[in-house]
Amino acid sequence: MDINFEPFIEWDNSPFILFSNEGKILYVNHSAELLFGSVSTKELYDLTLAYASAGFGYKTTSLSLIYDAFMFHAITVGYENEEQISLRLYHTPSVQPKAKLHTESLITTDINILLEANIALFQAENSNPLSLLTDQDLPLFKMDQNHFSKLLRKVFHSFRSSDSIDISLKLLIGQHIIINNKKESLAGLKITANGRYVDSDDEIKELAAKNQIKTVLKEHSILLEIPLIQ
Prior knowledge:
Blueprint: H1 6-11, E1 16-20, E2 25-28, H2 30-35, H3 41-50, E3 57-67, E4 70-79, E5 84-91, E6 107-109, H4 111-125, E7 130-134, E8 141-143, H5 145-157, E9 165-179, E10 182-193, H6 201-210, E11 214-217, E12 221-227
Parallel strand pairs: 7-9
Antiparallel strand pairs: 1-2, 1-5, 3-4, 4-5, 6-8, 9-10, 10-12, 11-12
Organism: Sulfurovum zhangzhouensis
Protein name: PAS domain-containing protein
């Protein structure tokens, strides 16, 4: 009996990539297509070769990988011949809030309006060149606007001496978090520059935690994973 496994791979939330022995892409599922917006084909192919088993078969390795909003805790590399080799990456589970969130006190918010207002406050005191790319189709959702604005001010302040600042806001497709036993989608707000101050990182983490927001702090960027609470 012939079985078509392709739909099962397509439905899988784990990115799956099949390479040729020359590093060309032979097949990717939808999750992998999204990942290629954040990492190059060569980088993933090099990763595949680095963690391949010595002989035919497969090998799963635990490791930490971060590509923008995508975070992985393990990969599996497998091959049955010299012509093709596959890579599967496993998402790091989102950390679930320890305490119950009282959503009845939250305010339904258009995050684009709130973001633009806080950017205007930052630009009133700073002349850094700034670019903004947002998803205008993000749904309204509930949040503590005061806490979130405080968080944004701390985040922007850490880029106060940067030559230029790039800000992007988009839906993190295929990612979610469970809050109060309910699955909520996530939006990613990423701020990138040529460098930043880290003196407020502890405050940023504390403010983010109060809003059930996950932070990824790097030398040149800050990523906030924001739950779209309905």
